[in-house]
Amino acid sequence: MEEIRAAIALEKQSLEDLYSLSANTDSLAAMLLAQRENKETFEKEMKEKEESFAKEITSKKAEWEIEKAKQKAEEKEYTDELTKRRKREEEEYAYNLKIRRQKEQDEYDSKKQYRISRQIGKIFERQRDGSIQATPNEI
After folding, report:
1. Is the Cβ–Cβ distance between 119 and 138 less than 8 Å?
2. Residues whose CB is less than 8 angstroms from the CB of residue 120 and which lie 6 or more positions away in sequence, other chains included
3. Total-model pTM
């Protein structure tokens, strides 16, 4: 009978070990299942975040390109306006210089003509008075 009790105890111990192993296996399976679900959830969230980030980057890049084109257009407009203004100022300066020089030339010619006519008038006056004969150097 001792042998039977020992065999029963051995079988009982074997069943307890087996049950413990089975419970641990179930626990491990539940942990693996939870880890797999967490992994899938994490991967799904990461994919959504990557897609959202990619859309945001694309949107920002498009906005940047629009802003860049706008800035380039404004810069070209400013450069064109500046070029036109400088050309206008150069033309205005050249015109004013031409007018001023023409006035100076006219004034010089007028004074020269006045001096010549005064000299001729003096010569005629002298000739009329008969005092001096005109010499070619006086004219």
Report:
1. yes
2. 139
3. 0.46
Give CA–CA dist 45/38, Å, rounded: 10
Burial of residue 123, with CB atoms counted within 10 A of its CB: 0-12 exposed, 13-18 middle, 19 or more buried: middle
Candidate ranges 1-10, 19-28, 69-78, 114-123; pick with highest mean pLDDT: 69-78
Q: Which two tokens stand for residue 122?
A: 């003096």
Sign of the CA dihedral 55, 56, 59, 64? Answer: negative
Q: What is the pLDDT of residues 87-111, one digit of tens each?
A: 999 999 999 999 999 999 999 999 9
- Give the N- to C-terminal CA distance of the chain in Å, as an integer: 172
